[in-house]
Design a protein that fits this description.
By secondary structure, the protein is an alpha/beta fold. The chain has ten helices and ten strands. It has two domains: 186 residues, Rossmann fold; 98 residues, 3-Layer(aba) Sandwich (Rossmann fold), CATH 3.40.50. It has a six-stranded mixed sheet with strand order 1-2-10-7-8-9, with helices on both faces. The chain has a four-stranded parallel sheet with strand order 5-4-3-6, sandwiched between helices. The chain starts with 12 loop residues before the first strand and ends in a 30-residue tail after the last strand. The C terminus is likely disordered.
């Protein structure tokens, strides 16, 4: 099993100070937006390629196929080019221009699917592509457990940083898309700190786990937090690691992102803002002697073209799951 995370350097565990609230718990955030392509997804695909090559499932010269809203596509394009692979990214229409340009600049080929089909249609398209193109391989970060396993090393980095600082965490809070980031980190934190409480966060317009736990009917709706709310229960989420579930709105993420940029000098994207918003809300309920850990997923520059958080292909607003489950 790969242990060097594709040569990626550990990222900083940063304590938020300027947005900290008096009397609230401390918040420490893992700065994954500082990875080479500007997001947490660099970890996933460096690890996946190492493992799949070791298994003999893939080899240089093949075409690697993946579904992505952009961050994963850029990460795979980068490492794929370095390792001698062609890369095809199946992406729902409507993602930011910055994401598209980055993937193409790194050598990836983008095939767009309908925006209304979101990632579910992209996944079907990826499977069909591989069937029709011998020598191609669908990595499928959505269901491949190598996704969450790649995040164990990040969890180990967090544990090492906490122990170096002499801190015992009380809570870990993190939003879920594929579920890999949450699962891998939570798995390690619960081993190292058995009393830690974990909270999974979902965007209100596509909150499958929240609906399941509350006995509500789930319906995916378009939202403006790219990378979250894939429209289904995340296969890479190990539900036994989730103690609590909370929801946020897209506006929560975008507003908090701008505070992190202006007040903390952290140039992060809206999903990172969503994580911090949820962490702040939790911190207010806790005492100042408690510690909350979260993750900063990606970079602000990936969103310059839609800086107000509004874009034509995805409506915004709030609509939590409602009504009894069928």
């Amino acid at each position: 099993m790969s242990t060097d995370n594709g040569g990626l350097k550990p990222t900083e565990l940063y304590e938020l100070t300027r947005v900290a609230e008096p009397g609230a718990a401390r918040i420490l955030a893992k700065c994954e937006f500082k990875n080479p392509t500007g997001s947490h997804k660099d970890r996933v695909f460096s690890y996946m390629i190492d493992e799949l090559e070791a298994e003999g499932a893939i080899k240089p010269g093949m075409t690697l196929v993946e579904c992505s809203t952009g961050n994963g596509g850029a990460a795979l394009s980068r490492v794929g080019a370095e390792r001698g692979y062609q890369v095809v990214i199946i992406m729902p229409r409507g993602m930011t221009a910055e994401r598209t340009r980055q993937i193409e600049a790194l050598g990836g080929t983008i095939l767009e699917t309908a925006g209304e089909g979101f990632l579910l249609e992209s996944e079907d398209t990826a499977r069909a592509y591989v069937e029709k193109n011998p020598g191609s391989y669908f990595l499928d970060q959505s269901t491949n457990e190598l996704n969450w396993r790649s995040w164990r090393l990040c969890g180990e980095e967090i544990v090492a940083s906490l122990k170096e600082k002499g801190i015992t965490p009380d809570h870990f809070i993190c939003s879920i898309g594929t579920g890999g980031t949450f699962t891998g980190i939570a798995d390690v934190l619960k081993d190292a700190f058995p009393d830690v409480v974990t909270t999974a966060v979902e965007v209100d317009r596509s909150a499958a786990l929240y609906a399941k736990r509350k006995g509500l009917k789930f319906e995916h709706q378009a939202h403006n937090l790219m990378g979250l709310g894939p429209g289904k229960m995340p296969a890479n989420l190990r539900e036994e690691l989730v103690d609590e579930v909370e929801i946020i709105t897209g506006d929560d993420g975008w507003a908090t992102m701008k505070r992190l940029i202006s007040e903390e000098d952290l140039y992060v994207g809206p999903t990172a803002g969503g994580n911090v918003f949820a962490a702040q809300r939790l911190a207010r309920r806790l005492g100042p002697d408690q510690v909350v850990v979260t993750v900063l997923f990606d970079s602000a520059w990936k969103y310059f073209s839609i800086w107000d958080g509004k874009y034509s292909d995805y409506e915004t607003g709030s609509a939590a799951p409602t009504g009894p489950a069928a």
